[in-house]
Amino acid sequence: MRKIRVAAAQLGPIQRDEKREAVVARMIALMDEAAREGADLVVYPELALTTFFPRWYHEDRAEADVWFERAMPNEATAPLFARAREHGMGMSFGYAELTPEGRHFNTAILVDKAGAIVGTYRKIHLPGHDEFDPERTHQHLEKRYFEPGDLGFPVWRTMGGVFGMCICNDRRWPETYRVLGLQGVEMVLLGFNTPSVNSQKGAEAHDQRMFHHRLSVQAGAYQNSTFVVAVAKAGTEDGHHLMGGTCIVDPDGVILGEIPHEDDGILVRDCDLDATRFGKETVFDFARHRRVEHYGLITQRTGAVAPE
Ligand code: ING
Q1: DSSP 216
Q2: Interhelix angle for 174-181 vs 206-223, to 10°?
Q3: What is the Rg, in whole angstroms, of the alpha carbon atoms belonging to the chain?
Q4: 56 near 16, Cβ under 8 Å?
Q5: 169 lines ligand 1 (CB under 6 A)
Q6: CATH second-level architecture of 3-294?
Q7: 224-271: pLDDT as tens digits
Q8: From the CB of 47, is ligand 1 less than 6 Å away?
């Protein structure tokens, strides 16, 4: 039995004018609550320090740099790292990264119980568009403000298990989980900011959005025999609604719990990382069952090509 007690720490809305310091204070309050419940690890959403700014168009991309962090930890997040060390708690959170070389990524980090950043992931699947689109009910400019991640889908051995990360739209792509699964991942940590209104298909029902979200994380967990911790930034930011759906999924694809509201809150579950073994050694024993000689198109072809 390799138990880890995980707290999925959902953030409610962050308004455009909310200061990072105020958000960090909210994150610390959630961390303290998680500590009271004995959590070993706390997981926060994508872009946890700011509003979901890709909804805002900046003609001059450099203007958008105000949403980015030039270092991590930094002055605003130092109290969060300090509190995590005090609690002896690992953590993961997402933020907009501006590197010293001037590159822009939608990034998530994994910090161990001693407060060391042991893993960095940069979002690979960027949804949306890169120019202002007047046809859309609202903008989703991740392709404008971020580069695709350049670190692949790594895993790290820490806190007694094998952990991987992905971010938001990544969860909709089976390749994400399979690359992590081929490295023995036992727990995938992901944050998301998902607009509940499709900017191109406004009528899409909220229930369908939630269905696709659950389907994606449950399938990823089951098909790779791994836990998945999916954490929302939720609620209405400056009039724009983000769906909730924070949940923890076990290696059989079973949802162990969900946060039913759209405010700050935690969901705590004990996860036995040894529970990933059965699936990895039977139905999803990749070495015994996969036939890679037939999978070539998956990496050789980007877009679908139908027969004439
Ligand atoms: N947001 C959304 C997500 O993938 C989206 C974008 C919503 C794509 C719904 C497809 C359907 O959850 C981010 N930030 O990736």
Answers
A1: H
A2: 20
A3: 19
A4: yes
A5: yes
A6: 4-Layer Sandwich (3.60)
A7: 999 999 999 999 999 999 999 999 999 999 999 999 999 999 999 999
A8: no
pLDDT tens, residue by residue, 126-146: 999 899 999 887 889 999 999
Structure confidence by residue, pLDDT tens digits, 66-92: 999 999 999 999 999 999 999 999 999
Query: Does the C-beta of 87 come closer than 6 Å to ligand 1?
Result: no
Closest alpha carbon to 17 in 59, 47, 50: 50
* Amino acid residing at 220: G
Report the pLDDT value the prediction gives residue 291, as an integer from 0 to 100.
98
Ligand 1 mean position to 80 CA, how many Å? Answer: 27
Nearest residue to 14 (alpha-carbon basis) of 233, 259, 232, 169: 233
Residue 306 has pLDDT above 90, yes or no: yes
Residue boundaries of the structural domains of the chain: 3-294
The active-site residue, picked from 97, 166, 168, 237, is 168
What does the pLDDT read at residue 204?
64
What is the spatial distance between Cα 73 and Cα 148, in angstroms, rounded to a whole number? 22
Helix H or strand E segment including 143: helix 142-145
User: Which amino acid is present at 144?
Assistant: R
